[in-house]
Amino acid sequence: MNRHTYRSTRPYKYKNTFDSDIVQLLLFYILPFIVINGLIFFLVTTKPKYEVVIEGTNDYRTTDVTFTIKSIMPLKEVTIKMDSEPVDLVKVGRKTYRTTIDHNGSLEIYMVNFNRMAVLGYEHIDILDNEPPTIEDYISEDGILSFTIVDTQSGVDFSSISATTPTGEYLLPLTADKASGRVSFQMNSDSLTVTAKDMSGNEFLTTFSLNEKEASDVPSGAGGQTGDTA
User: Same structural domain for residues 147 and 179?
Assistant: First the structure.
């Protein structure tokens, strides 16, 4: 009788020391190296960040500007100027400041991080009305002076338009068309001085003469212009 003997064999599990060494190398050497060097690079090269919001204007004379620091790094220096003049800022939040601007121009923002990385930015403000109305297409015929008055920002204050003669007589316009801006005056003398304002109070003052034409700009109120115009 044949006797069969069966031997049960189990696969031998080899300990993969190579994989274990790679894992340890990644966890304790390569990843920390990448993280640390990445952090150093971030700290060394990060520039300041900010946000500027120029709000609208109701009267065309002033606008509020909000300045918010977006940097997470400490700052060494923050300078904000308007046309090379320092701007007064009022703190309204943890990293938020506000100022009121009363004229058009360039807002300059200069910031320096603790790592000496700096940023210089500019914001242009042009929504305010600092200029008086202008007069175009003037003509004098048959004793009637007519012209077009224009103001592209706050608009012309048509109730302010008037004129005076050399003797001091006060005149109101014969016609004043708000849609076209066309205005006319009775002109019975050799000259007539016309004044007009925009809705922001900037005043235009000019003299129309039948004999000569000479124009020059001078301040008048918030802003103005005067001259002799034939």
Answer: yes
Task: For residues 100 and 159, state if they share a domain.
Answer: no
What domain range includes position 88? 50-125
What confidence tens digit (pLDDT) does each residue in 154-191 have? 999 999 999 999 999 999 999 999 999 999 999 888 89
Residues 76 and 53: their CA atoms lie apart, in Å, by: 23
For 142-161, b/e burial (b = at least 16 CB within 10 A) is eeebbbebebebbbbbbeeb
193 within some domain:
yes
The segment with the largest mean pLDDT, out of 12-21, 33-42, 168-177, is: 168-177
What are the residues whose beta carbons fall under 8 Å from the beta carbon of 74, sequence distance 6 or more? 113, 114
Do 111 and 179 share a structural domain? no
Two tokens at 175? 């016609």
Question: β-strands 203-209, 226-229: how paired?
Answer: parallel
| Count of domains forming the chain | 2
Confidence of residue 216 (pLDDT cuts 50, 70, 90): very low
